[in-house]
Write a structure and sequence with these properties.
heterotrimer, A mainly alpha (225), B mainly alpha (234), C alpha/beta (235), A: 225 residues, mainly alpha, B: 234 residues, 79% helix
Chain lengths: 225, 234, 235
């Protein structure tokens, strides 16, 4: 069975489990929305100032929401030692990596599709026409977050204080993604186009490709029984 | 258990040499070299600051090598090296930041500024402190070693990307600072300045390897004690 | 299935959990793996299952080196944990479907139904595995491994969670595997039952193999070797 087919098999299994366990997506939705409310109370500024801060605030929300998802990522495998069952099988560990990061990516995309427009509504922002471009940049950043985050989630699997440790090790490594995505989004909001932000986009793409490849190659060493 | 006198003697020589070189370096930096034309006496901290950060980078490179070797060959000594190097790396990075801060107050008037180099150093400190926390929070030793090795590799590979992003950010958005702290005035370089720096640098490297060998031996001894205890208990 | 193990060893730091382990098993062997706690039984099983990497030595299945063709040979090795390795929120049938697909064994249409029937779970095929009792989960595990049909089946202390009918079902399944020429290796403290089923007994002590013999009746050499590990209750 090829890598992609194995990834697909695992993804379907995870989606089915998520529909029944409901321990990730709903929590992430609510948390993301909750953060928007917290922002409203924290930042008492004029709407145009809010528009300037939109990329940064959105990414703060996505970072924390995404980390929730990452912490839950291997939860289904922890019950009944199912992780051992997967490692025992002829499964390519790279497929496990792709399936898990893909799953978190899917959850985050769904959350972002709701939270971004919600931000625009709650804070009375205009320029709705720029949302598709902003979403595209966010997507590239989210891919980087999910691939690196899945690796970090896997290596902290047996650590104590895991919910604290995961952001601690992940966030400093995420700085290139954070900088690139937010600066890119700011450029789009300011000029209406990607053009000036080309170097940032290249950095993002490079980050995504490097850690996606690395993840597939080294996941064998990352995940252990 | 052949870690007897030859090793100890070599370490002693290294330690002595390190101490001597650092002492000479200090003498040269503080007494022989002239004060800087622009910055005055404060500039002398550079003789500690630059070797500190370079040693820290060397440390992180050793973490990378140790981590890679451990994942490949699974030999405990590579893991011990990585752990020792990470601890020293954190130490030297913290020193660098403190030294930078001490230099910054009289020079720029502030204890901290988010310029590219300082920010990068702070990020490095965060990454490798995270590495040490990861190790201490995983109970199973082998899992801790494997997990830390992965983080050691990824952390090191991420550094160029972090470097690029922080530098672009800081050069595209120039903060309204009075002095550009990225540049030190090397135009008129007095030869004694360079000599002082060179001696300091060599002294730091020797000191670093001495401390590394001590820390490595400490890790090794812990392992030996553990093995003895279990053998006796069983 | 033929298993050959040469000089297998596993160390954790400076401590050896298993050392100098050599073994040669012909097809159809049923091996009872015995020994006191901490002897290295679980380590050996994990090494054979591919869940841990050895520090030294080699494992060969039918002449193929284990480490080299990891993915392929992993499909021929199974670890039966009676109530584990099943997803609680998937139904019995979905669990079987997932694992057969994972092992590339999803074949004929009625295969899953037949397997469920054979273990008496036909009526509960659409129930979540999590809602099944430990005994029923064990039956599901047996159905699973019957479908996956591994050449080498490993078991680590299976008797703990099983009730009477569960034990009968398990032992019948294990005998079937051996009759097919596959190998079964079972680590257990239930010496009597293990000896009843096995064709060979191994005793591990402090990481070393101290006894390796094919079964005889009576088995005085075994009694001598194992006598040290029996509880010394008052008489």
């Amino acid at each position: 069975m090829t890598l992609l087919r194995q990834t697909y098999l695992l993804l379907c299994k995870d989606l089915r489990l998520e529909l029944r366990r409901r321990d990730s997506l709903l929590t992430m939705f609510f948390f993301g929305t909750l953060l928007l409310f917290v922002f409203h109370f924290s930042f008492d500024v004029a709407p145009d100032k809010m528009a300037e801060m939109a990329p940064a605030l959105l990414w703060l929300a996505f970072l924390f929401t995404g980390t929730l998802g990452l912490a839950q990522l291997f939860q289904a495998e922890r019950d009944n030692h199912c992780l051992d069952a997967l490692l025992l099988s002829p499964l390519d560990r790279g497929a496990l990596f792709l399936a898990k990061s893909g799953f978190n990516l899917l959850l985050m995309i769904l959350v972002e599709l709701v939270v971004m427009p919600l931000f625009w509504i709650l804070f009375n922002l205009s320029n709705w026409n720029l949302l598709p471009q902003l979403f595209l940049v966010t997507l590239m950043g989210t891919v980087g977050f999910c691939v690196l985050g899945t690796i970090m989630s896997a290596i902290t699997l047996r650590a104590r204080a895991r919910e604290l440790l995961l952001p601690l090790v992940l966030f400093p490594l995420m700085i290139p993604v954070l900088l690139a995505t937010i600066r890119c989004m700011e450029t789009v909001l300011r000029t209406g186009t990607f053009a000036d932000a080309a170097p940032w986009l290249r950095l993002l793409l490079g980050f995504d490709v490097i850690f996606l490849t690395l993840g597939v190659l080294i996941f064998d060493w990352v995940i252990e029984a | 258990m052949a870690h007897a006198t030859p090793h100890k003697k070599r370490k002693g020589i290294l330690g002595g040499l390190a101490l001597a070189t650092v002492a000479v370096g200090l003498y040269w930096s503080l007494i022989v070299a002239p004060p800087d034309a622009y910055q005055g006496e404060v500039q002398r901290i550079m003789y500690l600051h630059l070797p500190s950060i370079l040693t820290a980078y060397l440390s992180y490179f050793l973490v990378f090598v140790g981590s890679g070797m451990y994942l490949w060959k699974r030999e405990k000594r590579d893991d011990l090296l990585a752990h020792a190097a990470a601890e020293l790396g954190v130490l030297f990075t913290a020193l660098t930041i403190i030294e930078g801060s001490i230099w910054g107050k009289p020079t720029w008037g502030v204890w901290w500024t988010w310029d590219a180099r300082l920010t990068l150093t702070a990020i490095l400190l965060l990454i490798y402190t995270g590495y040490l926390m990861l190790r201490s929070l995983i109970d199973d030793e082998n899992r801790a070693a494997s997990a830390a090795a992965i983080l050691g590799i990824i952390g090191f590979l991420d550094i160029p990307l972090i470097h690029m992003s922080v530098y672009w950010w800081r050069t595209l958005h120039q903060p309204p600072s009075i002095l550009r702290p990225d540049k030190t005035p090397w135009e008129t370089v007095h030869p004694t300045l360079l000599t002082a720096l060179a001696i300091s640098f060599v002294g730091f490297i020797l000191l670093y390897f001495y401390l590394l060998s001590l820390r490595y031996r400490l890790g090794e001894m812990r392992q030996e004690i553990k093995a003895l205890r279990l053998e006796r208990g069983a | 299935m033929r298993l050959t193990v040469k000089k297998l060893a596993k160390s954790y730091g400076f401590l050896w959990a298993l050392r100098d382990f050599d073994l040669e098993l012909p097809p159809g062997s049923f091996v009872a793996l015995l020994g006191p706690n901490g002897a290295g039984k679980t380590t050996l099983l994990k090494l054979l299952a591919g869940l841990t990497m050895p520090s030294a030595g080699a494992i060969e299945l039918d002449g193929e080196n284990f480490a080299a063709n990891s993915s392929i040979t992993r499909g021929q090795i199974g670890l039966l944990a009676p109530a584990d390795h099943l997803y609680d929120q998937l139904t019995a049938r979905e669990n079987l479907r997932f694992f057969t697909a994972l092992y590339n064994k999803s074949g004929q249409a009625g295969m899953l139904e037949l397997a469920l029937e054979e273990v008496g779970l036909a009526g509960r095929a659409d129930e979540f595995a999590g809602n099944l009792s430990a005994g029923l989960k064990c039956r599901l595990s047996i159905a699973k491994w019957r479908l996956l049909d591994p050449g080498l089946l490993l078991l680590d202390e299976p008797y703990g969670v099983l009730d009477g009918s569960g034990i009968d079902l398990l032992e019948m399944f294990l005998r079937e595997q051996c009759d097919k020429g596959h190998i079964v290796m079972m680590a257990s403290h239930h010496v009597a039952r293990a000896l009843g089923l096995c064709s060979r007994a191994l005793i591990l002590h402090q990481g070393r193999l101290t006894f390796n013999e094919a079964k005889q009746t009576p088995w005085s050499s075994f009694d001598r070797a194992f006598g040290d590990f029996l509880p010394r209750g008052g008489s």
